[in-house]
Structure prediction request, 106 residues.
Amino acid sequence: MSGYAWTDPYSDVVLLRGGPRPHRGFFYADWLATRAASRRMRCPLGDYGGWSRRYAPTTDTHTDEHGRTTRVWEHIDPGQWGRWGREYLTPDEELPAARFRTGRAA
Prediction:
């Protein structure tokens, strides 16, 4: 892993590495919606329902056999999030829900 992409995690597609959903891909807007649903349900990070919020965006990318490039999100142990003080929120998640990026021009 090269490092974390805390300030600019956006990519059209997200690829998960490690944790309960390895090698699973999401469109970025769907990924943010999955994470938002976990927050709305108030699922703790350590519980099954909090799995989506235990991933952090990396600077790594993956190109599939069709030439599509995705950003890799790495699973982080819930204890590490506790040591860091809080879970990670993307810049889009810090905005109102209606302003999530969709990859399309507004």
Summary: DSSP finds two helices and four strands in the chain. Helices lie at 28-40, 78-84. The chain has one domain: 13-94. The CA atoms of residues 23 and 50 lie 18 Å apart.
